[in-house]
């Protein structure tokens, strides 16, 4: 209980990017969820806790998403980190697209940050580029076993080629964002409850 | 086709039968002379014969409809059946000049409706249903009352204005009519919604509403009928209060009857071990009894049998044998599907009877307008209220579908036929109007709802060829989003359900489930467990044999060979054309649309192939593929296949990450030695941090060691088991558990308490019922201690619940692993 109230008090003092205006109710809910996931009341989550969620084991990208909760090789994530990752999926308020103060960092749920989140799921070696190999790995995850390895490679090649503008054989973040510019990321990468 | 000819012939036979009977009877009486070798005794078999023939006709009709996919994909089957019924009715009428066959209320309520509702209850996606129960109840209760009241009052208002001409009715008659026409029909709604792919929440709301509004309909109908009998002037305020009270009695009473019978049924199936062959019978007989009992007590029979099905499903499936479970499933589907077919056909046939037709254009048209408009208004108003409380908002498109999906059906028809002509003077007008309303909603709305949904969805998306990147990443985003939903617990994780599952595990399952069933678990998962275990075991064994674990570094394909990990390889059958076709047919309509678009704009065939491959084989996100409930289909195998594949892959990767972590220690002999030395040091002085291993936090490492030590003592182990541990080798298999057991995690850790608390297990695959625990098979558990490489040692480390990496570090050395006996015990 104490942890919760401290978490709830913090947003006012912290830089807004830490608890990016996740509403109080959502925060309480998330904290409930956090404690539910925290199987032995450690106060933080480790990979095992998230791997226990059954639906993630049948989600092709499940483990990659779990990994995204543990950046830079860390082995635990506290509530703040947990909420911070989830904050990427807040819906973008219609009216508020340009309202955030330019002094402040861009909100986590902005289009670019949503894209960045997805991008880093692909970019395993963190070099800022999705190489052909990384693309292939994602494809292997997402495509059924019926498709042969050669087909996958050809698809990976084509996908990279299609997005690659500077001809370096890899997709940079800008290229990634450009190729998806027509897509309604704001809607596709938002969960309504995380207001 | 040829089928039509057959059907017509049959119909002619049916039409001709009554006349044949009439012609043959005097002859039968006249021929009493002597013994006859063969006699024609039509009247002897007449009734069952006709029934059987009708069932045959209806079933043949279904075959005929499904000969052409084009027709059934556009026109809902229910509409086709009504049209067929009209045609057959016409033939019968032409032959007989009397409506010999109609849908009588007795036939409908006692024989045709129960299987359909039982099926709905038995296959109800419970989680979703109870997750949205509040919403469903609001629509079912308030919505239905609203519809009944507004429709009845508006019609009465128009009647007063004189637009309907002269009718022998009063306010109460209109309200009675309003109440029977107000309810959305479970049969019709499902018949149509099954073919429209809407999201699961929307589906369950409309479906649940159509089932639960029965209580309201029954009460309103009974109340207004008795008011009509009493006469408008004699109705007092007390009667109105009684009506409201009776609503609660009827609905709660019906539910209670259902629950009691479900309890009985579950209990009975617990003891059917030696009479397996009649096991399935119990399910049907006892459920049917719940229906009849509540009908006898004038409670809501539909609610009773629905809840009987909902409550018993878990225990019954766990108790009865697998064959019996299959029998129950198939029989239930067969009965429900058959009953539905007959209902719609007979609705058509019943309409062909000039005696019941009374036309009043204003009344009929206004009824149609009012029920549509008021349903829409009701839905919008209620949704507006609901959206303030709901986590998952209902959007405009959902509301349109809900309003438009409010189909009326046979329940309304049967109720209106039940009316007493002496009390309700305009019964015939009501009957004809109801028929028109049913036909209009089932045929016209059923026909147009699919295009409407498509149009509404497509309207939002741009008409343009999606790029490969967009296709791939778009799908990835879908998966990411559903993973985030699972992590953030959007899919209804709540307190009440936790409480309930605790209660269920502790008490209900113990009483209602066989002891063997309490331990039985999903077969498919067992296979996975065994595979994973085998993999892990042979991996360690192999490592020992070679003296190093370097082979793990070889490419993944080699790896598979080495460790005998049998990946499901694509079989030739799956890749065949028929397989592709099947995929195509089952694909959601929107996919088809995009296929079309692509065909137009594609440049070269190779591109086409690439796009096609992606389109076809990209895993589908959850919402798109998960069928909830279908009256006509069992077990969506495609989805299971996808789940299996991904599950397998995930597990293998988790295992591999565990291996590579292990390898990280052994790849460098020097580092390993160093590590060993440090470990040795640590044993002596447990405060020396292990700085040489970048993967692991020294503090963690230390904790593990500590725990290792403690675990060498069995009593300590017990403490841990109760305290917190999740694990053992289970990590490999421990998938599901949607943390519903958060508060109790560890207590029911099955690895350590094999005889306890396995009651929640059922044969449902873990991804379908995520709240249930999955444990390794008995065999696997037995194997663990005796397995090569001293596998038991994995257990304590697992228990540390730190991470895969940490667990490997602790028993990283194969040389050490060979040493028998409890590890680290020297150190005490």
Automatic annotation (TrEMBL), chain A:
It comes from Loxodonta africana (African elephant). It comes from the Eukaryota. One of its GO terms (biological process) is cellular response to calcium ion. Belongs to the calcineurin regulatory subunit family. CHP subfamily. InterPro entries: Calcineurin_B_homologous, EF-hand-dom_pair, EF_Hand_1_Ca_BS, EF_hand_dom. GO terms for molecular function: calcium ion binding. Residues 110-145, 151-186 form the EF-hand domain. GO terms for cellular component: cytosol; nucleolus; nucleoplasm; plasma membrane. It is found in: Cell membrane; Cytoplasm; Nucleus. This is Calcineurin like EF-hand protein 2. The keyword Phosphoprotein applies. Keywords: Calcium, Cell membrane, Cytoplasm, Lipoprotein, Membrane, Metal-binding, Myristate, Nucleus, Phosphoprotein, Protein transport, Repeat, Transport.
UniProtKB/TrEMBL annotation, chain B:
Residues 55-455 form the Cation/H+ exchanger transmembrane domain. It is a multi-pass membrane protein. Coiled coil: none annotated. Residues 1-22 form the signal peptide. Pfam families: Na_H_Exchanger. The keyword Chloroplast does not apply. Keywords: Antiport, Cell membrane, Endosome, Ion transport, Membrane, Phosphoprotein, Signal, Sodium, Sodium transport, Transmembrane, Transmembrane helix, Transport. GO terms for cellular component: brush border membrane; early endosome membrane; extracellular exosome; recycling endosome membrane. Residues 677-697, 805-828 are annotated as: Disordered. GO terms for biological process: regulation of intracellular pH; sodium ion import across plasma membrane. The chain crosses the membrane at residues 49-67, 79-95, 107-124, 136-159, 171-193, 200-224, 244-268, 337-357, 363-384, 396-417, 429-449. It comes from the Eukaryota. It catalyses: Na(+)(in) + H(+)(out) = Na(+)(out) + H(+)(in). It is found in: Apical cell membrane; Early endosome membrane; Recycling endosome membrane. Residues 815-828 have a biased composition (Basic and acidic residues). One of its GO terms (molecular function) is identical protein binding. The keyword Isomerase does not apply. NCBIfam families: b_cpa1. Belongs to the monovalent cation:proton antiporter 1 (CPA1) transporter (TC 2.A.36) family. Plasma membrane Na(+)/H(+) antiporter. Exchanges intracellular H(+) ions for extracellular Na(+) in 1:1 stoichiometry, playing a key role in salt and fluid absorption and pH homeostasis. Major apical Na(+)/H(+) exchanger in kidney and intestine playing an important role in renal and intestine Na(+) absorption and blood pressure regulation. This is Sodium/hydrogen exchanger. It comes from Loxodonta africana. The gene is SLC9A3.
């Amino acid at each position: 209980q104490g942890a919760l109230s401290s978490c709830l008090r913090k947003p006012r003092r912290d830089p807004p990017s830490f608890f990016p205006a996740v509403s109080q109710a959502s925060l309480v809910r998330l904290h409930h969820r956090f404690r539910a996931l925290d199987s032995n009341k450690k106060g933080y989550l480790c990979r095992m806790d998230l791997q226990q969620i059954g639906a993630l084991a049948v989600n092709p990208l499940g483990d990659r998403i779990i990994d995204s909760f543990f950046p830079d090789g860390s082995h635990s994530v506290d509530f703040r980190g947990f909420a911070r990752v989830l904050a990427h999926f807040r819906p973008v308020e219609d009216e508020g697209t340009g309202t955030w103060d330019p002094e402040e960092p861009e909100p986590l749920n902005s289009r670019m940050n949503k894209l960045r989140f997805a991008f880093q799921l692909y970019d395993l070696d963190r070099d800022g580029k999705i190489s052909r190999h990384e693309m292939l790995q994602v494809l292997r995850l997402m495509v059924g076993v019926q498709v042969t390895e050669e087909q996958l490679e050809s698809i990976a090649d084509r996908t990279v080629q299609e997005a690659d503008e500077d001809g370096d054989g890899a997709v940079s973040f800008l290229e990634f964002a450009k190729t998806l510019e027509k897509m309604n990321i704001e809607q596709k990468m938002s969960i309504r409850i995380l207001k | 086709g040829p089928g039509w000819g057959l059907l017509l012939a049959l119909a002619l036979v049916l039409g001709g039968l009554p006349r044949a009977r009439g012609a043959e009877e005097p002859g039968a009486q006249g021929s009493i002379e002597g013994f006859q070798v063969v006699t024609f005794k039509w009247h002897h078999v007449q009734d069952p014969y006709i029934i059987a023939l009708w069932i045959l006709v209806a079933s043949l009709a279904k075959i005929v409809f499904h000969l052409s996919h084009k027709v059934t994909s556009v026109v809902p089957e229910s509409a086709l059946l009504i049209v067929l019924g009209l045609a057959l009715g016409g033939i019968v009428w032409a032959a007989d000049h009397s409506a010999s066959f109609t849908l009588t209320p007795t036939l409908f309520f006692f024989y045709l409706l129960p299987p359909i509702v039982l099926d709905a209850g038995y296959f109800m996606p419970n989680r979703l249903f109870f997750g949205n129960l509040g919403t469903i109840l609001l629509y079912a209760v308030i919505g239905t009352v609203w519809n009944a009241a507004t429709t009845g009052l508006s019609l009465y208002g128009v009647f007063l204005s004189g637009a309907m001409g002269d009718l022998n009715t009063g306010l109460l008659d209109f309200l009675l009519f309003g109440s029977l026409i107000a309810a959305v029909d479970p049969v019709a709604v499902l018949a149509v919604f099954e073919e429209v792919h809407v999201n699961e929440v929307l589906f369950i709301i409309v479906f649940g509403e159509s089932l639960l509004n029965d209580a309201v309909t029954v009460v309103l109908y009974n109340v207004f009928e008795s008011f009509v009998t009493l006469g408008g002037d004699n109705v007092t305020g007390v009667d109105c209060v009684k009506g409201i009270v009776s609503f609660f009695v009827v609905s709660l009473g019906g539910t209670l009857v259902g629950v009691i019978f479900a309890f009985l049924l579950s209990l009975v199936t617990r003891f059917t071990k030696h009479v397996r062959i009649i096991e399935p019978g119990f399910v049907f007989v006892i459920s049917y009894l719940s229906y009849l009992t509540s009908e006898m007590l004038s409670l809501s029979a539909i609610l009773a049998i629905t809840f009987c099905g909902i409550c018993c499903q878990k225990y019954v499936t766990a108790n009865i044998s697998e064959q019996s479970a299959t029998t129950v499933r198939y029989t239930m589907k067969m009965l429900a599907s058959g009953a539905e077919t007959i209902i719609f056909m007979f609705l058509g046939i019943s309409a062909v009877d000039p005696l019941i037709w009374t036309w009043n254009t204003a009344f009929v048209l206004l009824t149609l307008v009012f029920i549509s408009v008021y349903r829409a208004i009701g839905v919008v108003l209620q949704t507006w209220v609901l959206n303030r409380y709901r986590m998952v908002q209902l959007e405009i498109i959902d509301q349109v579908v809900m309003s438009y999906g409010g189909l009326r059906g046979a329940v309304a028809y049967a109720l209106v036929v039940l009316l007493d002509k002496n009390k309700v003077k305009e019964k015939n007008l009501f009957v004809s109007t109801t028929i028109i309303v049913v036909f209009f909603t089932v045929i016209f709305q059923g026909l147009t709802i699919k295009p409407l949904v498509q149009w509404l969805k497509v309207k939002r998306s741009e008409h343009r060829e999606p790029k490969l990147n967009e296709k791939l990443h778009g799908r990835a985003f879908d998966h990411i989003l559903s993973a985030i939903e699972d992590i953030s617990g959007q899919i209804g994780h709540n307190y009440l359900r936790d409480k309930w599952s605790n209660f269920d595990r502790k008490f209900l399952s113990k009483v209602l489930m066989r002891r063997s069933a309490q331990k039985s678990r999903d077969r498919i998962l067992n296979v996975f467990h065994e595979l994973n275990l085998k993999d892990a075991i042979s991996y360690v064994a192999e490592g020992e044999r070679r003296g190093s674990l370097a082979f793990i570094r070889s490419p993944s394909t080699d790896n598979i060979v080495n460790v005998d990990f049998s990946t499901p390889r694509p079989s030739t059958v799956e890749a065949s054309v028929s397989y592709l076709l099947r995929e195509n047919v089952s694909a959601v309509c929107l996919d088809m649309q995009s296929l079309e678009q692509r065909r137009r704009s594609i440049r070269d065939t190779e591109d086409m192939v690439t796009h096609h491959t992606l389109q076809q084989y990209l895993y589908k996100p959850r919402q798109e593929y998960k069928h909830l409930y279908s009256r006509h289909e069992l077990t969506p195998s495609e989805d299971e296949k996808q789940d299996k594949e991904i599950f397998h892959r995930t597990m293998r990767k988790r295992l591999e990450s565990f291996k590579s972590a292990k390898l990280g220690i052994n790849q460098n002999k020097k580092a390993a030695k160093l590590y060993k030395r440090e470990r040795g040091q640590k044993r002596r002085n447990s405060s020396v941090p292990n700085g040489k291993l970048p993967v692991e936090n020294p503090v963690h490492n230390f904790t593990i060691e500590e725990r290792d030590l403690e675990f060498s003592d069995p009593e300590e182990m017990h403490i841990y088991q109760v305290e917190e541990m999740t694990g053992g080798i289970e990590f490999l298999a421990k998938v599901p558990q949607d943390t519903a057991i958060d508060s109790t995690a560890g207590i029911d850790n099955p690895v350590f308490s094999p005889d306890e608390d396995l009651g929640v297990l059922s044969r449902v695959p873990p991804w379908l019922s995520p709240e249930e625990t999955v444990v390794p098979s008995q065999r696997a558990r037995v194997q663990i201690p005796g397995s090569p490489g001293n596998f038991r040692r994995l257990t304590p480390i697992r228990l540390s619940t730190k991470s895969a990496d940490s667990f490997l570090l602790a028993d990283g050395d194969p040389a050490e692993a060979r040493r028998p006996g409890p590890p680290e015990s020297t150190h005490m």
